[in-house]
Amino acid sequence: MAQNASVIINADQGEHQISRHIYGHFAEHLGRCIYGGFYVGADNQAIPHTDGVRNDIIQALKDLKVPNLRWPGGCFADTYHWKDGVGPQSERPTIVNRWWGGATEDNSFGTHNFLNLCEVLGAEPYLSANVGSGTVQEVIDWVQYTNHDGVSPMADWRRANGREKPWAVKYWGVGNETWGCGGNMTAEYYANIYRQYATFMPGWSGSAKIERIASGASGNDYHWTETLMKNVPHQLMEAVALHHYSVLDWSEKGPDVGFSEAQYFKTMEESLKMEEFVTRHSTIMDKYDPEKKVALFVDEWGGWYDGDADKGVLYQQNTMRDAMIAGAVLNIFNNHAERVKMANIAQAVNVLQAVILTDEEKMILTPTYHVMKLYNVHQDATLLPLSIDTPDYELDGKKLPALSVSASRDDQGVMHISLVNIDAKKAHSTEVKIHGDEAKTVRGSILSSASLQDHNTFDNPDKITPKDFKDFKVKDGILTVSLPPFSVVVLEVK
Ligand code: AHR
């Protein structure tokens, strides 16, 4: 195959760390994410579990090196009253999940369950606090309950409920989508509300510092980010969020499987908009915060289709299309590591672009899971600057860049390069020049399949798994890599 793309990596110029938190996840009380997903109940005899959380899910997420988990929403968070989910089960009231199908939940999965799960996973918890229908006092109490080491009403209540040591929760969202389901606020109004909440949240964690995350813009709402950056004193805000889903059309999102190539193209077009959104929101942040003290957290992202409602609210299959979204968008986040310090794919189990799907006692790992696992070599590694000259992926006269790349060097000095070819029909061969280093030993893994529609099923769980990749050569220090259509390749270069 003739070489038609080129990449130059400056292997000796890395400056910024790729935060492992870019590889974060999200678990909302929605459909079968928590109940019937993560949580099968402490008395379940059929499915092996630890305090009600499935052991197979725990193991899969540990293998993925999940760095953080956001909970309890999403839209649900602004209806959630945490005190209803602690203490004796017999005294817990129910809650109607008014955003997601109106299910009545028994509050059996609460703060202790979630924070203990994060401890088992070795993941940082990210609690999303209720601003839309809660109170400042409720949030103060939650911080005190989870983080205070001394004697206080909330810390004592935590101890009475069986937990001596605080969990020291670092990440705190101050409302979610406050422009929509979190209260339909204007940016100006929310900026004031945010200031009020953020004022009272610190002071309960000893010397540990919490990070407060302002509910952020959707997609290209630059006014939202500008208003927060301008109106909120930066010592009150450690991060601003951003949400962007890859959606064809909110009124008709298209099928999860059986989509046309035109629908695939549009999904990728929407996914690649992340580059523009992250760049433009960062530029606004640079204006008000040139020292980059406030981070950008993309705390919801992923593909959203008309899935299979019979299997749960917002349940959808996960095909090679989703692998393309994951590979391309994670490359974008890596390359913006200087400002993007966290991202949370929506969602971990049985909802939207899930890494795990379950059916009763069965569990499968999706193509998105495999991409995230291949990419976890970038966690906390040093981003290497690069430039790329890519051919286009063309359909019906429209064009998208076919290839995307990011590269990093880990603390052992090993370089990793992740390359994605989103072209549905054409393979592309790319030359990779590495300046400031030499490719002596190269090993690769690939995720690819015969059809874009391919996916793992409960009957065929390993249809799509990473394989060894050998379609590269090294000559005179230059690496030439052949990327099949719709494939993700990760190379280890020593
Ligand atoms: O992830 C599903 C929903 O999408 C979340 O609850 C909300 O924040 C977003 O609109």
TrEMBL record:
Domain of life: Bacteria
Coiled coil segments of this chain: none
Pfam families, alphabetized: Alpha-L-AF_C, ASD1_dom
Catalytic activity reported: Hydrolysis of terminal non-reducing alpha-L-arabinofuranoside residues in alpha-L-arabinosides
Entry-linked InterPro entries: Alpha-L-AF_C (IPR010720), ASD1_cat (IPR055235), GH (IPR017853), Glyco_hydro_b (IPR013780)
Kinase is among the record's keywords: no
Gene3D superfamilies, alphabetized: Glycosidases, Golgi alpha-mannosidase II
Subunit structure comment from the entry: Homohexamer; trimer of dimers.
UniProt similarity note: Belongs to the glycosyl hydrolase 51 family.
Protein name: non-reducing end alpha-L-arabinofuranosidase
Lineage of source species: Bacteria, Pseudomonadati, Bacteroidota, Cytophagia, Cytophagales
